[in-house]
Structure prediction request, 501 residues.
Amino acid sequence: MPQEAVEIAAGYAFAGPALDLGALLWGGECLADAQIRIPLPMLNRHGLVAGATGTGKTKTLQLIAEQLATQGVPVFLADIKGDVSGISAPGAAGDKVAERARDVGQEWAATGFPSEFYALGGIGTGIPVRATITSFGPVLLSKVLRLNQTQEQSLALIFHYADQKGLELVDLKDLRAVVTFLTSDEGKPELKGVGGLSTVTAGVILRALTAFEAQGMADFFGEPEFDTSEFLRLAPDGRGLVSVLELADVQDKPQLFSTFLMWLLADLYNDLPEVGDVEKPKLVFFFDEAHLLFNGASKAFLEAITQTVRLIRSKGVGVFFVTQTPKDVPADVLGQLGNRVQHALRAFTPDDQKALKATVRTFPDSAYDLAEVLTGLGTGEAVITVLSEKGAPTPVAATRLRAPESLMGPVAAEALEQAVRSSLLYSRYADAVDRESAYEKLTAQEAEKAEKAAIAKPRGDGSVVEQVVGSGMFKSLLRSMGTQIGREISRSVFGTARRRR
Prediction:
């Protein structure tokens, strides 16, 4: 090997357990004896997988996830396009796979990996993943509802009031009920001492909730709330379980799924104990289409992301952001990503050329002309630099990546459905539960007041039900909750049974 290639290869000759990514590219040749690797203990130092569309980012995720699972590390994958489910099935041998394996010195064997499949709120094929409004919190919810800073602060005040008064915010109708109450004649004085809630801001929030619900988003919020510790499990054979969140059915709602992924990560951070540096991560979390998370983000939201990414490393969790260019990720977050896999970039337009130059500047000095290399990489090739066992950056290495051993594409719909329904978690999370929470408490409170008023008044002034339905707050609730929610309110007041689905 040329001396430069020898020096690069020496930077990846780790003594401890590591993931094998591929073989070094130098001078137009693939050098199978020069293996490019990532030390297993460094996977919780986070990473970035970037590159233009069609350059192989998804297959890189699959390759890394397979090796992590083999070494007993659970993995979480966000499946945006619906093509990652194949990790659960053995791959298909072929001439291209065989050629790739020869080039990179890989002993390829078709292998499937233990997997669980999830879906946000049960929309799509997967075990339903739900969150309560309370656990989601005002900062993340403001991102989903696209509220400005003032509206976000008002939403935080509403959450604070509900918490102080024991009004559990489980689903959207709970939040609607509290907002409606706080803008009623009876509720306005409740927040007077802390600035109050303006009618205009409350109207914006209620309209945002209405639009959100009209898109079919109500199913994401409710109970049973998903326990994110389920992602930390191992398979019976000791391999790490691969948790695949199927997002193909909500890919037209990027703001929602990117923010929901952030909730999953933040929930893990809150629940896990401090472990410091570990021999291998407790979980590696792949955050696909990461640029969607940061688009239009408020300062508070960006601060929350930055803090979570910075601190979750000490909980034993690694996070890989997957996007098109490094500039999609804010500098404060990018600075914490120690492992880099950069696929090819295109430079067809002035903006592309600007992005290329910015990407080159984010790499350490190297023996390559990176601008030339990054535009000349083929599919399944990437420029890599990772953290060594001592935490220092490795030399930049152009790499031909290994082929995944699982199926490079989706499994059949019938197989996916069978995998979901046979899971031990399905019966635990499949059916939504609607217990007493803020909406029910406020409605009961209004009914109780109407009943007392009826007792105090002579007969002929209307029944209790008529007074409840005729009250200002009740009418406001009906108006704000829309036709479908209005029907649910009516059922609860008049005692009619809710239809089972």
